[in-house]
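User: My advisor asked me to double-check a structure prediction for 3-oxoacyl-ACP synthase before group meeting. I don't want to rely on an old file, so could you generate it fresh from this sequence?
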Amino acid sequence: MRWNEMYIAATGSCFPERDDCARAVAEGRYDAQEHERNGYRSISVAGDMSAADMAVSAAGQGLARSGHTGDDIALVLHANVHHQGQDHWTPASYLQERVTGGRAPAMEIRQGSNGGLAGLVLALSYLSAHTGQDAALVTAADKFCPPVYDRYRSDKWMVLGDGASAAVLSRRGGFARVLATAMDSDPGLEEMYRGSGFTDAPFSTGLPLDLRERKREYMDRLGLAEVALRCSVGLQNVVKEAFGDAGTDLDDIARFVFPNVGRSLVQWDYLDAFGIDEERTTWEWGSGIGHAGAGDQFGGLDHLVAAGALSAGDRVVLAGSGIGFSWACAVLEIVEPPTWHRQGDA
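Assistant: Sure, here is a fresh prediction for 3-oxoacyl-ACP synthase from the sequence you gave:
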């Protein structure tokens, strides 16, 4: 999908504290071989903050930077994977009440780690269809803590990090023009994270969650080669479509923002697949954060802005996948780098 005059007006993020991975290995909380293979330096840990409150922090920062007020926000979308701080509850409404106010629709997105980019596409579509409305807020937040998760052992090839990120989308203008987006899905892969059978209540299979065993059973039956091929096809599909609609190619892209999965997975799924160097990605930043669910892409973009790493005319790709399985890609063009990092609020 090619977009006309749609922008990212601002981003925001909240990644509160860090747990040093070498210390986690020394204390027996993290396998030494996995530490070497994954390449993480540290992992973002929320401490006492709820996922919803991290989202409030990131969204408030983004709105303050955007040039918009809460009255301009026509849609609030909040993406997440896990518990947001309370059961039987609507965190998107909590976020709206504390950041934007107003009576705009406020909804939750459950698209796994693809939720942030899915929210981007949905918000752009909403603004495009409602021509009298100017802006939308998209957030992503998660907190992967005990007793439900052992962040170092529940899953393989990645360590789960806590945090939140946000983007304010605008029809008026912004620091980045959205040139094109694309999405794809392969529901035949959803069983990989479901496992066999269903339960009547959350976490009835025991805690902490053992996502590795679910994946192992699935891989043993379907085969690693088949899964890898289908995942590669999904990613290639969205990149090809978005690049075609944006009129761009790999050589035109200054920076890539991929999920903060482990170093080996980044190499296999992204660097090798597209023939690009790590230096063009946000892996150096991501290796100090961990995989923050649906928030890696907005968080990585926010990091690039804060680091002063973007120039006018640069093209930036946000891409990733989510369990289910789904993939998304967005191609941006920097209009003019904002001055947030020089103002000291990044």
